[in-house]
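Morning run. Coffee first, then this:
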Amino acid sequence: MYYLLYGLLYLASLIPLRILYALGDLLGWLIFDLAGYRRKVIDQNIYLVFPERTAEERKGIRKRFQRNFIDTFIETLKLISAGKPFITSRMKGEFDKFNILFDKGLRCQVHMGHNFNWELGNLAYGYYCKHPLLGVYMPLKNKAMDKIFRKLRSKTGTILLPATDMKNSMLPYRDTQYLLGLVADQVPSKVHQAYWLNFFGHPTPFIPGPEKGARAGNIPVAFVSISKIKRGYYYLHVEIAEENPSGLEEGELTRRYRNFLEETINQHPDMWLWSHRRWKKSWKPEYAKRWIDLDPAPLQAVDPLKAAHP
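And here it is:
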């Protein structure tokens, strides 16, 4: 099944990108306009973040997001057969900031969000940077598709670490210079152990692992976002958040990441994954010990989705 699927996808990736984009526009209409894929989740999320905007403005964000979502799918397909000229011409950025850390003999931990097009950014890193990139990923249940994505994501040298066995997977690299890539806006599976703070004004759980790992190993942390120059062309922005995180108080690094993520979404709202159910976990007063925001914790249960009427 793997060889059959990979062969078909490889052949499809050879189709000129302009034709793939045209097919993608049709696919987007079928998925979002006709089938209404995750329409309620998308509209609720956009309303939660931008309640002050008009209905027409929020609809515009949704429409642009839907196109970027499909474009990411199309561009990821193209990456199966794409080589260095295609990748480096379409993803520029501040990769030199990582190389400065490398030349200092430092490792680096990257915190980014579900920001399009992360697949292209992953492959471009291998051509621009000196650190070996360790990418954390969630294995797919379908073994053939999992093998295809692992092959794609590692084609420029990324070393993939399964999130299901992160501790053991890191052992061979713990004493080396590496860059560890983490998508840090995931919904934690254990919300009672998560860090809780306001995210766009709503109590939201954040994964504590990225901050704890950086502080324990005193690993410099960079925040990364991607903006779109035009269709198919992107720029990767890098902010060195902290070179000595062990000196920070607990919660400070996560608060900085929250601020960075809010600013990124405010600047480029159509580039974030609105179909991701970010607020599916509700705040409960028993999580008060895990509250790290500078604002006081809510005194009662809060479910922001119940208040969302886009």
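The chain is about 45% helix and 15% strand. Good start to the day.
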